[in-house]
What does this fold into?
Amino acid sequence: MVLLMIDEIPRRIGTQGWKQFLTNKKEMLNKFDRAKEYAKIHEVETYHGIVAEEQFREWLTNFFPKKYSVTSGYIISQSQSDEIKAPHFDVIIYDAMNSPILWTEDHSGLSRNGRSQAIPAEHVLAVFEVKSQFSASTVNKALDHLEDLKPLYDEIDKPDVLNKQYLPINFVCGMIFFELNIKNQYSKASLNNVIRGNIPRGYIGGLILRGEGIPEENTAVIDILLSESEMCSTVGSDKVSLITGSPLSDSICFNGKHIGSMLTWSEANFSIFAFNLLSRLSGIYRPGYLSSMHGMSWMNPERHRSS
It folds into this structure.
């Protein structure tokens, strides 16, 4: 009698280099985990948050073509009086070929690569806020800060204006979270807080690099949804988990449309986010289409057998 041993978990296959592309995320998480251990000895455990911001900026810097640069810092507008304080943002992506650097502040005593730069608003292409944990409170804090950009995205400069004052028409913003813990897996408010009444222009939702208890290759994207009808949350202990399901938020009515958010996990999401962001910066993003096949993987339909 021949006994067939069938592998219950199909191998994943993908485009050339997909596993190597995912090592970018693994390296970010490894450095974040080391920083969490060091932070436990600190009186105020904020060190791992600083490292998270640094690692995300470093990855983007290495990933992007040289026409884009990444920094933390300030966005400065010619329309703002010097009496108005400029807020500080975790990740600013700007047009490196055309933007001047108004000034640079050295924060090397606070972090290894610590510096902040001031970038003119008209050259800023994207802004992201980085948080360690995905939770109701951290989502609120991140979105609160993105709404500080309101004076800069309320209007769009006309093409022939010489002294531009506002963020470009293809500007995007969002939130990055390094992990989602099991204790927050049924937090309906976490996903609901992604969508609020004052939605920033160019807001694309967010990314979660890791979910506790699931394979580390999986990444979650938080997408913004538009609907003609009201959407109801599917999150809850008697419904769907934020870690294992594909949950929906409640929707809000905004400009005559119902707007909600959806969270989905996939091995391919890290690549999808990266190349969609690159397409958005270039002004060639097409909703509903893959921006690139680089870094993509899928289940191998053939199971391997031995006898």
